[in-house]
Amino acid sequence: MNKQVKNVMVLAAVVGSLSLVSCREAKEEDSATPMQNEMHQENMDHDMDRDEPMMDDQDMDATSAKFKDDKTAEIYNHYIAIKSALVKTDATMAQDHAKMMIASIENTEVNAGLVSAARNISTSSDVNKQREAFSQLTASMETLLNGAIASGEIYKQYCPMAFEGKGDYWFSNSKEIRNPYYGDKMLKCGRIEATIK
Fold it and tell me: Which residue ranges does the record assign to the DUF3347 domain (predicted)?
């Protein structure tokens, strides 16, 4: 009888030890998961040339595109400033640049969608609502940009994960991906869909 009790106790100790080891391994796997997700996000940015140094925001905001008229250039520069604010998840900066865009649009013939989207960004302090309006702003900007570039290029970029997997676009001066729909959460998630010349 004592021998059976000893065997049961030894067996219980072995099972207990295995449980502790397996929990510790599960925790180590869980802690590795965020890094794996970050690596996956980095791998999604297949358009970025790995040999080029990272560009800072000021370099990325400078455009090589020259526009046929100054008013379009001014409106586009405000668009890029709004995009940069959303990349930084800065609702106040997005509001300020949207207000400047609205002032630039006055006395010009632009589509109503551009004015409406800029107004929605300028009146909201909720960055998620601003990002929704930015989607509309981008669609309206595309109409404005068609045939407006005299030289240089602008990149139309796409994030397949934006808006719960529906995906959405934005314009950029750089091939580097800086996602305005996710900011720091998925900064480099996206790809170049087209080059506008």
Answer: 75-146
